[in-house]
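USER: If only I could read backbone structure tokens as easily as an amino acid sequence. It would mean a lot if you studied the pair and described how this chain folds. Here is the record:
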Amino acid sequence: MRLSGISSNVASLLEDAGQNAPSYDKFLSDLLSYEVRQRENKRLVQQMKLARLPLKHDLDSYDYGFESAMSATQLKQLRELNWLDQCYNIMLSGPTGTGKTYIAAGLAYDAICKGYKAFFRNMSDILSTLRLKELTASASKEFKRLSEAQLLIIDDVMTLPLGREDGNRFFVFINRIYETTSFIITTNKSPAEWAKSLDDETLATAILDRLLYKCQLIQFHGPSYRMENRQTIF
């Protein structure tokens, strides 16, 4: 029955039952509850590994006092994840260091803890997968994984210019999954600047049309949190 949680801890479970003398029904219920908890813990560890979140992603530690910070009300509403159930997207736009990646990763962590399939990738990761998915087994597996995501964070979109071929690959990928997957996009470019990064206004419009159809755009301003709170050796 593949009850690995029970089988690997059966000695301690039997010892505990011997000391507490539960009824047969209670003993069986405790065993199965233990197996469920072990499976959930295993799922969480595996999903966190596959998600590849940045080290800092704990939104409970978010600094609301920083100049470019979101309000507590806004962040609380996002953390409820109702938008994810409705397949809405979030676009976090603004200068480098204003907290976009931190918030995106934190929302991904919240989603994973609640049982969603969420993955964090930067733009170069996505493009590498799209280029190699027909050539290597690992890229093919990664493409399938991302295509089945319930939440996909794409970090640093359009930070660097894209060639026409990569732009077309990206459009095909977005078009394939945008109706069943929620996105969190972080970018330091405004939607109007995407055409310059792609060097193709029509293609940029087609991508944005799909991402912004059901989307909350959040604009950040102000200085870099890292530069304002930089650490030194001495």
Remarks:
- The two ends are 58 Å apart (CA to CA).
- The chain has a mean pLDDT of 88.
- Strands lie at 89-93, 118-122, 151-155, 182-187, 215-219.
- The CA atoms of residues 128 and 139 lie 8 Å apart.
